[in-house]
Amino acid sequence: MDIPALSISLNQMKVQLQASTSVMKMAMTAASEQSIDLLQMLEANTKMMEQSVNPHIGRNIDIKL
């Protein structure tokens, strides 16, 4: 059994695992930010659609005392 070669191999696998974990974290962060942006765009579009269908709703308030 070649101990130095085994040690080098294990260290290379460890570095590869750390690199792939780091890339996965970056991808998850990007996906999370994109989903937040998408939800905000959908909310804005929903409000615009409601205003275009019923432009008079929500502009005036009638109050009687």
UniProtKB/TrEMBL annotation:
The lineage of its organism: Bacteria, Bacillati, Bacillota, Tissierellia, Tissierellales. It comes from the Bacteria. It comes from Tepidimicrobium xylanilyticum. It holds the Pfam family YjfB_motility. This is Putative motility protein.
